[in-house]
Amino acid sequence: MTPDHQAPDRVDAAALEGHDEAHDRSFSSRLNWLRAGVLGANDGIVSTAGLVIGVAAATAERGPVLTAGLAGLAAGAMSMAVGEYVSVSTQRDSEKALIAKEIRELREEPEAELAELAAIYEGKGLSPALAEQVAVELTAHDALGAHAEAELGIDPEDLTNPWHAAWASMIAFTVGALLPLIAILLPPTEWRVPVTVLAVVLALAGTGLVSARLGDADAQRATVRVVVGGLLAMALTYAIGSLVGTQVG
Predict the structure, then answer these.
(1) Is residue 76 a contact partner of residue 48, using CB atoms and an 8 Å limit?
(2) Which residue from 167, 165, 195 is spatially nearest to 179, judged by alpha carbons?
(3) Looking at the 3D structure of the chain, how many domains does it have?
């Protein structure tokens, strides 16, 4: 087989490698969204559980507990949504600025940009000749896409969406917050705190396990950490509620 016949095969391999990398990035992005959802649910569980248990320690009436729980749920969900929207909007603005800069450089310094792209692929292990060939063909096909992906790790057609992040965070927090709120309202008065603590511990163990699996971390350590954190939060707010309820009463 002649060298002329070998080059296309190697280019095809490189293209397939780039295709696999794109899928890896997409999968990683989905994992990040899922991890953020788990963490949002965890925040909803802990913050709402602490709030309602603190109020329940101060009063035996369900009305104040329900009011505090719903207020905490609404405030927490909105806070999560706004925070994610602002954060991801800032990231999106940065991505747009980088893409605008890349467009300008491609227009004003096409040869320098081509050499830069070839150097990137050469740094990944391709021979200088093959790296140049890949850079030339990718630039001819989609100059901005090729350079943005290789240099910046950005897909110009798939920028981060702040609204998606905001809604995902709000929904995750709300789902997490509903569990302790329901758990403390349904049982009789004398059982509501123990039932809530048990429900929260089980839920936090689940979120800790899922978070650990997503991050390839030690499941036992992650689960113990999140459960202990939740228990400390509930113990603190229960102590404050008992103290305030006694003083007010």
Answers:
(1) yes
(2) 195
(3) 1
